[in-house]
Amino acid sequence: MSVTALSAVARTAEPLVMLRRFLALDAVVTGANGLAYVAASGPLGRLLGIDPTLLLWLGVFLLAFAADVGWLASRREPSGFLTRVVIETNVVWVVASIAALALWLTPTTAGAVWGLMQAGTVGGFAALQFAALRLRR
Description:
elongated
């Protein structure tokens, strides 16, 4: 992704601000997803065709992860090492989501679409965070 395109998405040309914004956006979206999984695991499980207990525990994980990413985004200068941990965790989430859809889960059509959209979104966060981290150096 070009610096110009990245700046347009982040609405700033400052790499540190870009990184913090992309981390914060990740935290907000992940936290909202986690909250939905925890608060409505039963109805969402039925809609998506995924075990509600699995959704509940995924929601707990996502809330914890979102809190950590939000904390990192709140730092004046986020740690490069911790940012790489976030990026790598996001990449693992994408791979695990696709593998689970293909090999393990038997979701409804809505669940399959949701799983792929979620994986794409998380992959997008990883790509944006990686690009901003590289610019920061």
